[in-house]
Amino acid sequence: MPTDSPLIIALDYASLDAALCMADRLDPARCRLKVGKELFTRSGPEVLDALHGRGFEVFLDLKFHDIPNTVAGAIQAAAEQGVWMVNVHASGGRRMMEAARERLDRQRLATRLIAVTVLTSMEAADLAEVGIEASPADQVERLAVLARDSGMDGVVCSAQEASRLRELCGSDFLKVTPGIRPSFAVAGDQRRLMAPADALAAGSSHLVVGRPVTQAEEPMAALAAIESELSGG
Ligand SMILES: O=C(O)c1cc(=O)[nH]c(=O)n1[C@@H]1O[C@H](COP(=O)(O)O)[C@@H](O)[C@H]1O
Fold first, then answer.
1. pTM, 2 dp
2. Pocket, ligand 1, Cβ cutoff 6 A
3. Cα dihedral 142→143→145→149 (10° resolution)
4. Residue 211 CA: which ligand 1 atom is closest?
5. How far apart are the first and last CA of the chain?
6. Residue 63 designated active-site
7. Mean pLDDT within 43-53
């Protein structure tokens, strides 16, 4: 049974063993899991089989960004592993996103395909340094509309932009929001942050949480505390 929890726990670990150790303490009825660049680069697709075998739906977060043909092939390869969600960078542009969409449709692969807008670790000064004078909020809007028009199922953005994107792109357009910091957690390298309950109220469809759970002394207690914040406890 797929979970209806909005929580996606980021398994940012340097080994398959460490990741599976954490997965074994989590419950597929209470969260999905995200496999990112570090873990996938070390473990390869084996981690996906192991997590699927434990009943988890997996977001494979490799943030593809390349020429259209290359990204379409990578997205097909990811989807054929049976993952629930994959992502690309919206800044790869319309033709890249359309190629990825077209490939999934042609192969009848139901994996959700979303696009990263502006990383939650970035603020205005970081954008200015790479030549983008727009504010993070304006740049997210621009890329989200482009992503929607290019056939994406949703975007990765910060929860700070979720309510505006709900107006622009509707409630069905997924808003997957990292940079979630429950009351007990520190910001770390994240810059555009929000608390879990505020993020859901703002229109986030899914909340990506990593270190506040995985680095907690008691990860299960941290997960339960987030669930309690979500239910207004
Ligand atoms: O695509 C992502 O998942 C992502 C996009 C983004 O803009 N910001 C962001 O933090 N992430 C990921 O979300 C997770 C956040 O982890 P914590 O900061 O530890 O909660 C990490 O795995 C990041 O790679």
1. 0.96
2. 10, 12, 36, 61, 63, 87, 116, 119-120, 156, 178-179, 188, 190, 208-212
3. 140
4. 19
5. 26
6. yes
7. 98
